[in-house]
Amino acid sequence: MHRDDISRREFIEGLMNVGLTMGLASTLWSVGARCNVPLLETKEAYGQNGRATPNVTAHEYTKEASWYKTVGEGTQCFLCPKGCYLAPGETCFCRTRINRAGKLYTTAWNNPSVIELTSIENGPLYHFRPGTRMLSLGTSGCNLRCLYCQNWQVSQTSPLKSRNLSFNIPQVIKATGNKSCKGIAFNYTEPVAFYDYMVDIAERARQEGLTVTVATAGYINPSPLKELCKKVDAFTVTLKGFDEDFYQKVCGSRLEVVLQCLEVIRKEGKWLEVVNLIVPSLNDDLTKIRKMAQWMKLHLGEDVPLHFSRFFPAYKLTGLPETPIVTLERAREAALENGIKYVYVTNLPGHVGNSTYCPNCGGTVIARKGFDTLAINLEGGRCPSCKKGISGVWV
Ligand code: SF4
Ligand code: SF4
Questions:
Q1: What pLDDT, on the 0 to 100 scale, is given for residue 12?
Q2: Cα of 143 from ligand 2 centre, angstroms
Q3: pLDDT tens across 44-60, in order?
């Protein structure tokens, strides 16, 4: 395996080159949310220069938004199916878009609330350029309302109210440490909520030869998603359950939209991995998990990896226990039995389900512990024992 060796010191020096410092927490992974992301301690997340974004008139933190139309003095957003109509002065559901004098502006611009050095596996992305070092970032705001959100402190607030870092697009690119990081990952909260910032960074990153990945809950309309696909190499999408009722009551979202999103990403030819966070008593019904696997096989193909992720109590679901290991194992077995070739147990370091096995002979082709890739045993993308091709992007 090729793995870039960038030390924490080198990375901090890279940030200092752009006039910013921040604490790093490379292993603060936790799950419970769509994003399955680490939430840094406040002092680490915001760094010494952390400060609240100035008011909405501050030019460097706002930009006219994409994907909207004017309706009289109002604005109608069609980035996601919420379709927010805003009168002048109103802020939208995802808390990052505002109607100012009849125009829609994004306030999630140059102001990430979290930025961190990670490996690409944290997506989770297991079959795409393993070992790649990524600069991961996200702003405040989200267009969902998951009751178990791990990062609700930033997802359920506005960039106008959170404390943020100040990173314009050249600074983000520079913070990759003169390419010591090979890519940029958009995650933590919901990238749809900072779509314009994401797209502009992604465009610039691709020009610089950097890999671009997105972890999303997939609640986005098809046209903006197709535009996004042109600038992104790989996606992780959380399929939160296979039950419309669960989606609406627990996440404030709609299953059919997410299924459509998954199909669009596949049709656009992007690498895709799917995550399902299993919440005890809410979406752990094995019958529905089997249906999810069957749907995936039929509509996405048997090669799309599926991650079953462990829930830990958070936000409004602190009264539920963490997911029993046996539940995750049964879900994994059910998905394998229903034809998905690569099925993982995530957020449970050391479990046998962390690693990748050849679907033909069963040999271990990538050994992992949690999100750490320990060894890659592939020859030209094939199992060294039986020569079966292993799906993924390996260069
Ligand atoms: S509320 Fe938003 S950030 Fe939180 S888990 Fe749901 S989609 Fe992710
Ligand atoms: S992206 Fe935000 S503003 Fe646009 S429709 Fe969705 S929730 Fe509303």
A1: 40
A2: 6
A3: 333 333 444 444 455 78
Give the residue, by CA position, lying nearest to ligand 1 atom 8: 34
Residues with CB under 6 A from ligand 1: 33-35, 142, 144-146, 149, 151, 155, 189-190, 217
- Residue 189 Cα to ligand 1 midpoint, Å, equals 6
State in Å: Cα 219 to ligand 2 middle.
10
Structural domains of the chain in order of their starting residue, each with its CATH number: 8-43+112-353 (3.20.20.70), 63-106 (no CATH)
Q: Using the mean position of ligand 1's atoms as its centre, give its distance from the Cα of residue 212 in Å.
A: 20
| CA 268/CA 260 separation, integer angstroms | 12
Residues 7-12: what's their mean pLDDT? 40
